């Protein structure tokens, strides 16, 4: 889309005028589940699955309806939400190829995870409530991708954050879970604040947050404003998608039940950041510096995730850092602009399948191994849980990009596109992406080999690891099929053309790379990674943590000091500010009073008797404030 | 006697004259009187009765209540004066009278409340 | 006869219909005093509750009638231009009464604490044998009802006062009962009376500043009517010095009541010490009244000089938002936490006020109502968490409440989310409204600070939620009282309105929009 | 008559009142300081009144209002402070807030000398 072209949304008619049902059905189900209480305990999980399934079926119907339309972007205004002066926001929905794609991912993969959770949460007395939160999560995510203005997206955005908070801290008796939930919520708030400020910038400069108005008006704005908007949106996206520097919450979010991890990491939540940047493509297209920063964040995070992933021994944490790194690929892609937006979304979809499959597989392993998560305590499991082995194996091959599985079709074009950027940037980002592919191959091989092959290194209490029940196996199989087939189907099914109305082009910017050579190189890198890992770990590993020999390993085990970074950058100033404020509120004022009392001839006894909370120091504060206000007014007037 | 502070000059002179007169009277007194103190002369004079106890006596709390009731009603009654100046004018008449009646009635309500709560009984 | 007096003093015409709501409230308060004086003890409570609620409902009905019969569109001045009956005035009066009714429900509750939250005989020395006796046995005194009616009437007078003197009288009329109400707690009477002493002394101190400002402005403009001040401000040839000192002094008196930094110092102590239903009344109704006065003064009397004072008040707004939020983080007492949060919220309203546009008025009005309902419900919930010696307000005592009382914890979490500005609660729509109005008025800096402080403010709220859900309750954890019908009603109203205005804010925003025109 | 001197006197009076509020510890004296501030305002009203031509003597009437409200304020204030005095045997405002830390009231040394209110009066 060139900037001169107008973004236009037709109003919805016919079947699509009921598109709001997509959000309403899971929301209503969540309300029923949460409000009805114990009465719904027996059938709550069925309702939860049914509602998301219904949304999926509806989503398919709308999808095919949209395919048949000439103008592939329909908007639906439901009712006036809030109006202040000339600012007006409607509850409105935008249904276009991008949202349609996300709807299918969220409801489709979401449905499978719901079904899986029926089995996984069977023993949990709060299963009904869990499904209530799950539905809430899904409906918030649907609102996020279906809103027709940044404000609608933001409401979904906050809803997702809230639901994730509830779900991550599900195991309330574990302090780690509580802390993790809190951390997720708070770090998301940092991103949310940036998003809010970006929205207010839109308001201030364009008078609206409607996608149509903003995208049509953004070309006329000064570059500084556009850049600020882009960077703030990026910061918001980083918060939700776990990108540097706000990545630390995402691995901690593993404290929730495994279906939650799968839902957060594959179908919802983390993809929100990618969605936001892809959706705001006119803003990012208008500022090449902003795009470069997105690319840089993506490239840096993908390496960061890989490096930490290599050093972790907890199966879910390895997968979590793998998510961080894969989302980095997506950021890299959407930052490149043009046709690469579609590549990012393509990778997102493919990732949705194989990552959900991997998480469900991990959950299945834990289910069979009495909630053990330590990779060093697995080994040789392929004999005991063949279905899990096969599904995780397919997901593993997909994520490292072995042809013809989906990762190959989605990741390699991103690496190509990064090189195609040209100049030193092309080299830096391209090599980062290539190196990331090799590292991914390494740590995923390590995970797979340590879990399913080699000797048994189980703890003593485990006698018979068992395969999971059918209700858990079925989603895993379906997701494995998706991991295998999604990439090729999407690429040859014209996915990039389907998204063309949103991004305006299918052309990846830059020069055309030598496809065959690129594929050869990246496959070679991947195979080297696999080989090294296989050689190192085929005999298993030591059962205790080895002393870190190099600073890199030590740093990687410390999550590359992500937490330290966050503490220094976000918490420390806050703490200092708080202390300073408390000091001035209490001690400072008292100090002044003490001094004043001494000046006006107070005795030492008077000084000693001063304590906080006195009327006089309050009066002094008020007087001081009064004097400053008068002086300031004078200064403004006379100065 | 004109200029910036002119109109205050009279006031100033009056003050000065007052201070001078006062000072002169006391100075004269001091110069002329004999000065022979003894303990009996230095005790506090209480109408001829021998002084007993300390100089800090606690006042009955009730004095405060009564004094306070008096002050309130007395102060409220200042509104009667401006009213008295205008109520007889043409155009004011009955309305003004009724309004003042309401005002007094509200005051009376307060008094009534005080009475019912037993504030006015002295035992 | 005095020649000056002979000048044209005419009998001011009083449109009794237009000021009927105020008269109803104050008249019924007098009825309440009579009932207190003459009814036997057992009858007083039901009669007082009835009188109180009837007065407020009747007042509200009258206000709605006035609003429907075109007073909002065709505003009038009455009583010698001393009172303005216009859109914002009626809206604010209505807001005071609506919030007042809910607060009255909390005040009238007698089943949570046996006999009610107020002391039976204020004159009995705290801690004595007789005091313990009355705390156990005797029902609350009922003077609280006429006192609250006087306070509410004063607030209504305050928001529709059209000259500074009327405003000062109204300020005292609503402040004096509040000082007394602060001192009436049944438990922790020492704390309560301290709060009253502090509130009184500082309130009197600040109202002295207020009236000093009035005198300055009178000297400047030769009149205390807002309109005359506005005219004098644009006429050249007068020294602005008096006007700006006067404005500053006025602002101090008003910002004190609104609890803006640095005039907020009393708030935490008083909110903590006062009986919780009274705190709820102060946090909701007093805030509405204070900002009603601020709106009218800024938008009617000082509109044309806004370029000079807006930066100064803007700095106060920033300080209020930031310091309120930061200090809220460090609090360990739920009532103090809510107090600091109410300080920060005053900053948000101030941000809306400073838009100095029509949106500024409507969004501030909207925010005041949304905040009022949420804070009423929050304080209502605080009354339910109890120890042997009254409310357990220390945060550590709230640990694990989510398990003991899931409904209470759920509602409280919802209210906290609203305070934190999460969408689909009125906290979000309110903040959204004031911030976008401020942006429209060019106050970008304020908005950025506002957003940042609201993010910061989410921390303490979240801490409470975490405490309630994620920590083990202590062995001697406080009990959660079963709310009586009145408290339940108040809680339900507060929570439902918080949700309703979060999902469908245009119900109220439209009303606020159509009301947002001051009469000059 | 030039109004500068009365204005300055009023400002000084106000300043003395503020100073009193800040340095006095006795709550009653604090209250009196506040009264001083209000009287400064009265002086200003009367002064401003003389310098405004052609308007009815509104400034003087305003003074009446301020006086009445000051009296009401004193009434409520004294009531609150005396209650507090009965509890703590002290009207020193420096102590206000000290009890926030030590919740146990110092009832032991509360003055018994003060007359108890008539129980009958309240019992009606």
From TrEMBL, chain A:
It is found in: Endomembrane system; Membrane. GO terms for cellular component: endomembrane system; membrane. The chain crosses the membrane at residues 12-36, 43-64, 98-118, 130-148, 193-214, 220-239, 290-311, 318-342, 348-366, 387-406, 426-453, 474-495, 515-537, 615-636. The gene is nuoL. Keywords: Membrane, Transmembrane, Transmembrane helix. GO terms for molecular function: NADH dehydrogenase (ubiquinone) activity; NADH dehydrogenase activity. This is NADH-quinone oxidoreductase subunit L. InterPro entries: NADHpl_OxRdtase_5_subgr (IPR018393), ND/Mrp_TM (IPR001750), NU5C-like (IPR003945), Proton_antipo_N (IPR001516). Its main location: membrane. Pfam families: Proton_antipo_M, Proton_antipo_N.
From TrEMBL, chain B:
The chain crosses the membrane at residues 6-27, 63-85, 97-115. It is a multi-pass membrane protein. It catalyses: a quinone + NADH + 5 H(+)(in) = a quinol + NAD(+) + 4 H(+)(out). One of its GO terms (cellular component) is plasma membrane. It comes from the Bacteria. Keywords: Cell membrane, Membrane, NAD, Quinone, Translocase, Transmembrane, Transmembrane helix, Transport. GO terms for molecular function: NADH dehydrogenase (quinone) (non-electrogenic) activity; NADH dehydrogenase (ubiquinone) activity; quinone binding. Its EC number is 7.1.1.-. It is an enzyme of class 7 (translocase). Gene3D superfamilies: NADH:ubiquinone/plastoquinone oxidoreductase, chain 3 (1.20.58.1610). It is found in: Cell membrane; Membrane. Its main location: membrane. NDH-1 is composed of 14 different subunits. Subunits NuoA, H, J, K, L, M, N constitute the membrane sector of the complex. NDH-1 shuttles electrons from NADH, via FMN and iron-sulfur (Fe-S) centers, to quinones in the respiratory chain. The immediate electron acceptor for the enzyme in this species is believed to be a menaquinone. Couples the redox reaction to proton translocation (for every two electrons transferred, four hydrogen ions are translocated across the cytoplasmic membrane), and thus conserves the redox energy in a proton gradient. Belongs to the complex I subunit 3 family. This is NADH-quinone oxidoreductase subunit A. It comes from Actinocatenispora rupis.
UniProtKB/TrEMBL annotation, chain C:
NDH-1 shuttles electrons from NADH, via FMN and iron-sulfur (Fe-S) centers, to quinones in the respiratory chain. The immediate electron acceptor for the enzyme in this species is believed to be a menaquinone. Couples the redox reaction to proton translocation (for every two electrons transferred, four hydrogen ions are translocated across the cytoplasmic membrane), and thus conserves the redox energy in a proton gradient. InterPro entries: NADH-Q_OxRdtase_suN/2, ND/Mrp_TM. It is a multi-pass membrane protein. The lineage of its organism: Bacteria, Bacillati, Actinomycetota, Actinomycetes, Micromonosporales. NDH-1 is composed of 14 different subunits. Subunits NuoA, H, J, K, L, M, N constitute the membrane sector of the complex. One of its GO terms (cellular component) is endomembrane system. Residues 161-456 form the NADH:quinone oxidoreductase/Mrp antiporter transmembrane domain. HAMAP family: NDH1_NuoN_1. The chain crosses the membrane at residues 14-35, 47-69, 89-108, 144-161, 167-185, 197-221, 241-266, 278-299, 311-330, 337-358, 364-385, 405-426, 446-470, 482-504. It comes from Actinocatenispora rupis. The keyword Membrane applies. Belongs to the complex I subunit 2 family. This is NADH-quinone oxidoreductase subunit N. Its EC number is 7.1.1.-.
TrEMBL record, chain D:
It catalyses: a quinone + NADH + 5 H(+)(in) = a quinol + NAD(+) + 4 H(+)(out). Its main location: membrane. Pfam families: Oxidored_q2. It comes from the Bacteria. NDH-1 shuttles electrons from NADH, via FMN and iron-sulfur (Fe-S) centers, to quinones in the respiratory chain. The immediate electron acceptor for the enzyme in this species is believed to be a menaquinone. Couples the redox reaction to proton translocation (for every two electrons transferred, four hydrogen ions are translocated across the cytoplasmic membrane), and thus conserves the redox energy in a proton gradient. Belongs to the complex I subunit 4L family. This is NADH-quinone oxidoreductase subunit K. It comes from Actinocatenispora rupis.
